[in-house]
Amino acid sequence: xxxxxxxxxxxxxxxxxxxxxxxxxxxxxxxxxxxxxxxxxxxxxxxxxxxxxxxxxxxxxxxxxxxxxxxxxxxxxxxxxxxxxxxxxxxxxxxxxxxxxxxxxxxxxxxxxxxxxxxxxxxxxxxxxxxxxxxxxxxxxxxxxxxxxxxxxxxxxxxxxxxxxxxxxxxxxxxxxxxxxxxxxxxxxxxxxxxxxxxxxxxxxxxxxxxxxxxxxxxxxxxxxxxxxxxxxxxxxxxxxxxxxxxxxxxxxxxxxxxxxxxxxxxxxxxxxxxxxxxxxxxxxxxxxxxxxxxxxxxxxxxxxxxxxxxxxxxxxxxxxxxxxxxxxxxxxxxxxxxxxxxxxxxxxxxxxxxxxxxxxxxxxxxxxxxxxxxxxxxxxxxxxxxxxxxxxxxxxxxxxxxxxxxxxxxxxxxxxxxxxxxxxxxxxxxxxxxxxxxxxxxxxxxxxxxxxxxxxxxxxxxxxx
Length: 466
Ligand code: ARG
Fold this sequence. Notes:
Structural class: mainly alpha
Order of helices and strands: HHHHHHHEEHEHEHHEHHEHHHHHHH
Oligomer: single chain
Helix content: 55-70%
Shape: elongated
Strand order of the largest sheet: 1-2
CATH superfamily of the largest domain: Fumarase/aspartase (Central domain)
Radius of gyration: 31 Å
Bound molecules: arginine
Distance between the termini: 57 Å
Low-confidence stretches: none
Number of helices: 20
CATH topology of the largest domain: Fumarase C, Chain A, domain 2
Mean pLDDT: 95
Largest sheet: 2 strands, antiparallel
Number of domains: 3
CATH class of the largest domain: Mainly Alpha
Strand content: under 5%
């Protein structure tokens, strides 16, 4: 269907007819890339200052550009900026408005640059800011986790393998396992930040520019570590977005594991923890319900980030150098990955310090599944049995307890001695939950004094962060 075509584009010169109205909408990115407006202005200010320093712009022209961009920034924050789909993207919207406001100098801003290096710069600036916010949320969540762990170094819960009761552990120890996942996520995020923090500005369309630009000046003004090395790579590289999405996918995957545990633990069947009402919702039909919505939703949102990672890898696959319009498709996945991981971390950081553990329920559960069977085997080994024989002896004792529906610690000394004569009255110490925890007394183990020390080390690591 014919729609009215537009002629108001910035490349008008070469074209004999305007862009098809549908094509214009189809190819536009302004609806989503206006999110980078602030960074686009920062980049333009640095570029203009550099053009002045190398003599391409006059003092007056620079000052006009600065005044115009300041006004545009205001218009954008106040929601008064006249965004236009006809101007395709954030870059052309701002440049065109600048020319409207200040005339000739506005037309000179684009000297020695292209939207290709401009957009590559804007995304990096935007992502760098987002990374710094996300890093703060990770640290806040880690502080919450470690704080809760410190209060529960001696709170006993069943540790699981295969979701079957395995051995008793400290609840604080379990929480510190979450902290380790996040510690690695943080370090991955910092790796990504370090590698992406270079400035593509000056690569221009793909080959560089014939103006006497100073790329070191713009890189430094924008807080980048250095200018990028190769102009072709500069305008086409989106590895950093893939790296960020890999970080986001893995962090969300970790949050989904924590979520899953919270969902299990808040169920009536486990009853290990309570979440404050403000992180839950009820049911419109079942009056008794209190649903753990926040962890469930975080678990569900993992699909987004994992999908975005694959989208970006596929976007880049087989692209010839240098810039291709395909790259416009990098923004929506990247932005959504940023929002998803940031908001999920925020929800967790708010929620975790307010988790209310039910120590009695955890203890009862730890008593149920023969969590100290390994401790009995270890006891027999201390009395001189080879471990495999001890394993066999304890297996038979557990068999009897299963039949009689009692715990190992409820057998009498005589009954235990029937399984092996080396068992003495000191066995009961080994069979208590406390004794079991206390025995695992080495770095990384669940003994409460080790967990206390691990909390201190974990906090000390947070202190070293910038
Ligand atoms: N909107 C474009 C993007 O997001 C900006 C760069 C366009 N460059 C070009 N030559 N078409 O990638």
